[in-house]
Amino acid sequence: MSANLAEGESRLLYPPPGLPPGGDGGASAGPADEDLRVVAARHPGRWVATAVVGVLLAMVVSSLVTNDRWEWDVVARYLTWPSILEGAWATVRLTVTASVVGFALGTVLALMRLSRSPLLQAVSWAYTWVFRSVPLLLQLLLWYNLAYLYPVLSLGIPFGPEFLFFDTLDLIDKFWAAILGLGLSQAAYSAEIVRAGILGVDQGQHEAAASLGLPRHRQVRRIILPQAMRSIVPTAVNEVIGLLKGTSIVYVLAYGELFYIVSVIYGRNGRVVPLLIVAAIWYLALTTLITVVQYYVERHYAKGALRTLPPTPVQRVRWELQVGFSRLTGAPVPDGVPPGLAARVRVGRWVAPRTTPTGPTGPKGGAA
Amino acid sequence: MTGGLLEIRGVHKSYGLLEALRGVDLTVRPGEVAAIIGPSGSGKSTLLRAINHLEKVDRGFVSLDGELIGYARRGNTLRELTEREILRRRTRIGFVFQNFNLFPHLTVLENVVEAPIFAQGRPRTEAEAEARELLARVGLADRADDRPRQLSGGQQQRVAIARALALRPAVVLFDEPTSALDPELVGEVLGVIKELAGTGTTLVVVTHEVGFAREIADTVVFMDEGVVVEQGPPADVLDHPVNPRTQAFLEKVL
Q: Fewest Cβ atoms nearer than 10 Å: which of A224, A287, B79, B101?
């Protein structure tokens, strides 16, 4: 159309001032160049694929609704059953405590591994080696049987006198046996994640911090770790989600977390599948919560690494709705919507030409 | 600011089998501007990093106003300092990196005040006021709250210079400060360094800009293969080099 006209021709094809737009002659005065209509490309392959997946999805949903063996009424009844809620809460407590223990110890192990002392390096390496190699189930049972190895635990001077004595059975109950098992093995994995994060920070950042004479702890806490967090967070959240589901293994200690409670209930009433679904829904909900938290934590640590932060999901949905509304009604796009997104308003929609053209508007740069 | 006296005596440094520095002697008087030039791999950057003790030297020593960098001298023994003492002495030396190395997660102002507050223990209000003055001096008063990645390369390097000056150093070391910049941004950074050259702070600049060296340096030092080959006023070293290696290098770059 007129946008492709060579320089010089445009003057002839545009109507002189005062003539109504779209008047006689082959060429019509369309909208200004920047308001040209955009026709969306057609994607027949995509439409077919969408239809196929849509049908499959409908089949799944219909079978979920029509097959009464799912026993949704039972699921609904047990979803908020008091002992199930208690179990879910126990799962949350296990996950949070084991994550804190795991990542605190993991950070220490990572710093040991990066220290210049060969002994510290070796101990850190050996810890990771042992705790990554032994199955978690086996570790849990070992910790639970710690009282067999050491009936009494004491606090004192190494190889010297001891002052405080504890009965191991009192100290390490099921909860703490689970925390030791989950937390100590988690530390082995977290150590590697934290170490990778620290190694990923540019060498120049270490040098700049050192050249400014900043104290060592300040270099690590203020300069290195915040930048390392950017690569630590996604993997760390993966680990926390793994841990959340991994807590179900604690049922071997008969500790009352979600999965153990569920198995006790279906052991009594025989409604196995609906109760497994109840547990699945709770794990799904908790994982969703963690994912939402992850998004905002990542955004926090992205400051400075990106020139502009990506929009939050809430912002994105709001903008999409505003643009969609403008496409349907022709209302102007509200302020605050990024121009790139706002431009989509014109895709597949005719924008009315300007009512009173004041003169020929040639292609951009044509005036020069 | 008063400049420091920098003395480099018999400095050797090897990386594995590669001898980067092979006995460097150099004195930079207080307030003097020394430009170090030479082919790549000649040990210029290594020498600069040794001055700041970012590299530990194998033999010889570097001292600032008679105080050894990285060691304490007792008679004929050099006692290695603890990291804490090294960090304290480093605050007397400013370092400007080729790649700026600003902290991307901190704002421009936070970058500048970090060391005065946490390495030198100065009060925050004082440090911030001085930082804003320094930013104004490098022409970036209005960018204090931006983050480094929102600035151009030339602006980032000017922030890096302000950050180095915030320590009120006796010596400022520049490691090829314009090599990572687009050609049209080189001028603004050189302008800031030139302005600094008149203020009495001792400056050591490793540079590829021979014209700039001629303009600001009191002494031009030519290094090759880990030693100082020739040094003297720019008019002598750059226009009438005595050593054939200096002649060959200058023929190539001019």
A: B79
What would the pLDDT profile of B81-129 be if each residue is shown by its tens digit?
888 888 888 899 999 999 999 999 999 999 999 999 999 999 999 999 9
Q: What is the ipTM of this complex?
A: 0.90
Cα gap A142→A131, rounded to integer Å? 12
A-chain residues within 8 Å CB-CB of B180?
A: none
Q: If phi over 0 gives left and psi between -120 and 50 gives alpha, with beta otherwise, what is residue B121?
A: left
Q: List the Cα angle B20/B21/B23 in 5-degree steps.
A: 155
Q: Return the ∠ at Cα A252 (arms to A249 and A256), rounded to 5°.
A: 85
Look over chain B and give the mean of its residue pLDDT values, rounded to a whole number.
Answer: 90
Query: What are the tokens at A178?
Result: 């689970």
| Residues whose CB is less than 8 angstroms from the CB of residue A101 and which lie 6 or more positions away in sequence, other chains included | A179, A182, A183, A184, A186, A187
Identify which of B115, B123, B201 has the alpha carbon closest to the alpha carbon of residue A213: B115
Between CA B152 and CA B108 the distance in angstroms is 13
CB A33 within 8 A of CB A363: yes
Cα–Cα distance for residue pair A265/A275, rounded to 1 Å:
8
What letter would DSSP give residue A248?
Answer: G
Looking at chain A from residue 189 to 228, which residues have their Cβ under 8 Å from any Cβ of chain B? 202, 204-205, 207-216, 218, 222-223, 226-227
Partnered with residue B204 across adjacent β-strands are B34, B173
Q: Which residues contact B167 (CB under 8 A, 6 or more apart)?
A: A212, A213, B91, B92, B94, B115, B116, B119, B120
User: Residue A348 corresponds to which tokens in the numbers above?
Assistant: 């597949």
Q: Three-state SS string across B101-116, please?
A: CCCCCCCHHHHHHHHH
Q: Which residue of B has its CA nearest to A227?
A: B105
Q: Whole-model pTM above 0.95?
A: no
> What is the C-alpha to C-alpha distance for residues A15 and A28, in angstroms, rounded to an integer?
8
Average pLDDT, chain A: 83
State the DSSP H helix or E strand holding residue B25, giving kind and residue range, or none if neither. strand B18-28
HEC sequence for A55-107? HHHHHHHHHHHHCHHHCHHHHHHHHCCHHHHHHHHHHHHHHHHHHHHHHHHHH
Which one of B101, B110, B117, B174 would you mutate to disrupt binding with A, by most A Cβ within 10 Å of its Cβ? B101
Distances (CA, A) of A234 to A238, A240, B54, B221: 6, 10, 33, 50
Considering only CB atoms, B97 lies closest to which of A204, A215, A218, namely A204
Residues of B in contact with A212 (CB under 8 A): 90-91, 114-115, 119, 163, 167
Interface contact B87-A202, CB threshold 8 A: no
Task: Give me the count of residues in chain B.
Answer: 254
Tens digit of each residue's pLDDT (9 = 90 or more) over A46-99: 999 999 999 999 999 999 888 888 889 999 999 999 999 999 999 999 999 999
Cα-based angle B205, B210, B211 (whole degrees, multiple of 5): 110
Q: In chain B, which residues have their Cβ closer than 8 Å to the Cβ of A227?
A: 103-105
Looking at chain A, the number of H-run helices and the number of E-run strands are 16, 2
Whole-number pLDDT of residue A29? 63
A44, two tokens = 């027949």
Residues of A in contact with B114 (CB under 8 A): 212, 214, 222
Rounded to whole angstroms, the Cα distance separating B208 from B35 reads: 10
Q: Which of A43, A35, A51, A45 is nearest to A1 (CA)?
A: A35
